[in-house]
């Protein structure tokens, strides 16, 4: 993907983030994520029904990379089954860690494919994805 297009997608998702804003719905699983090395702090809410992600909301104070990554993550994962989400999540983590991954499965999240070139920005891109992983791991303990 062209670097200018990547930049445009990241900027659009920062300026007009999708699924930003929290609910007061107690049926959502919630977590708070923060990056100790900068100001990034996100609250993430996930609604799961019948082993499927029905909705994801987020809010907080964070940099452009963090907000755009959270926005792209929500649109990538909403509507997917939990096993699909785990597969997408693993591919995203592999991409960030420069390991083999499936480009097709990541859709727009592919814009972060060269974030490893800026190691201090990796956590920014990963924070919301780690939040989803944290929630899914918490669900395992509830089974």
Kindly describe this structure.
Helix 3 packs antiparallel against helix 5. The protein is α+β, with helices and mostly antiparallel strands and about 140 residues long. The radius of gyration is 14 Å and the shape is globular. The protein has helices at about 5-15, 65-75, 80-95, 105, 120-140; strands at about 30-35, 40-50, 50-60. It has one domain (about 5-140): Alpha-Beta Complex (Sufe protein. Chain: A). The longest helix is centred in the last third of the chain and has 24 residues, at about 120-140. The protein has 5 helices and 3 strands.
Please give a handful of descriptors for the protein shown.
3 strands; alpha+beta; Sufe protein. Chain: A; 143 residues; 3-stranded antiparallel beta sheet; single chain
Task: Write a compact overview of the structure shown.
This protein is α+β, with helices and mostly antiparallel strands and 143 residues long.
Write the layout of secondary structure elements.
Layout: H1 3-15, E1 29-34, E2 41-49, E3 52-61, H2 64-77, H3 82-96, H4 103-106, H5 119-142
Antiparallel strand pairs: 1-2, 2-3
Helix pairs in contact: 1-2, 2-5, 3-5
Number of strands: 3
Task: Write down the overall mean pLDDT.
Answer: 94
Largest sheet: 3 strands, antiparallel
Low-pLDDT runs: none
CATH architecture field: Alpha-Beta Complex
| Overall spatial form | globular
Number of continuous helical runs: 5
**Spatial extent as radius of gyration:** 14 Å
- How do the strands of the widest beta sheet line up side by side? 1-2-3
The helix-and-strand class reads alpha+beta
Helix content: 40-55%
* CATH domain topology: Sufe protein. Chain: A
H-E string: HEEEHHHH
